[in-house]
């Protein structure tokens, strides 16, 4: 298990080898601008002030990025190393969770389950944006808190219902759940996941499911919702129909499932028309597996818990009016990894039990050999696809960094009063944030079309155009 962990984590750094050399992208510049000039006291007040938010309520993300800015400033490589560290910690935590909850008769089956969970979580290319995009550190940190929550709740569930140990573990789990909620709104799925885990523990130790301890995470969720729902009422995405009720409630989870089961080159942004079909095929296979397991009467409850957990983690992708970004697949991939770990352990148990005791050593060596071959094949394919996706993401993010360097150079020579950026390949809010980060409050920044250039000319105005993703000076008027 130690060797597996070392190999898996080393492989992560191979898959994301080029990441530390990448620049910031898109929303990163807005976050950096938000935290750059604030003291710790100011950032705490701002982060927890729900009335100041009109998008999402994520106070711990403010604190996370403020802390990194204080340490690293514009050093994007350090931010990316933090993302990688969070990712490998999460991979270790979810594989440890598999080791704790998967039931097996042999130690080798547990090790194989641990290995499968670790490799799928660490290397699956579907949620790559969560690792390569600094703004998506909210996904990584929320997943960390959720995994710690589940570990604590599992420890609580295995304790006597009236013991002090149960109370302590339950309180710690509720606190960690609150931290997850304050990091990312999708952590609202923590409560139903806790219920599933409590159900699984009750079956394992053959007792009734305890309901009273669930009051603590329920209260934590309710307290969070009082602030989050107020912010959601002002969310511009909600007002502009970025979320909605319609066919996407079914299509988006199926599309997301398709991205997980068929992570092919070029489909990472979920626009391929066949992805919901692939997801529907995977869902049908899951239903058939449940039916088969039900027929033979073994493991049906554990498989059902896994399927329900997958549905729960896919649920946050449902309301998006457009295809959900790949970073939202981070938690669903972990559930798929847990299911893969459980099935791998069950398969190994079946193979070992089918052989006589005198052949146990041969059987174990054979299982180990097959596991190594499968792990190598999966690892090589996953590394290749992840590297390709990271390169494509970096290419799309490059114009933002080029504009930052260009603006910094222009403002260092002689600061213009106005900077007009003509039809940039970057969203207007990102352009404004980049120039403010590079130049300060002045110059006044505008994003315009080519036909508006003459009308917007003023003294001491700098006009920027893009060619092949690189900014160039079109003209600069005199003072």
What would a concise description of this structure say?
This protein has 479 residues and is mainly α. It is built from 19 helices and four strands.
Structural description of this entry:
This protein is mainly α and about 475 residues long. Among the domains are: about 250 residues, no CATH class; about 80 residues, 3-Layer(aba) Sandwich (Cobalt-precorrin-4 Transmethylase, domain 1), CATH 3.40.1010. Helices cover about 65% and strands about 5% of the residues. The protein contains 19 helices and four strands. It has a four-stranded mixed β-sheet with strand order 2-1-3-4, with helices on one face. Helix 6 runs antiparallel to helix 16. The protein is globular, with a radius of gyration of 25 Å. It starts with a helix and ends with a strand. The model has no long low-confidence stretch (mean pLDDT about 85).
Q: How much is the average pLDDT? A: 86
Number of strands: 4
Radius of gyration from the alpha-carbon trace, in angstroms: 25 Å
Q: In one word, what is the shape?
A: globular
Could you name the ranges where pLDDT drops below 50 across 5 or more consecutive residues? Answer: none
Helix content: 55-70%
Helix/strand order, N-terminal first: HHHHHHHHHHHHHHHHHEHEHEE
Strand percentage: 5-15%
Structural class: mainly alpha
Strand order of the largest sheet: 2-1-3-4
Number of helices: 19
* Major pleated sheet: 4 strands, mixed
Q: Separation of termini? A: 68 Å
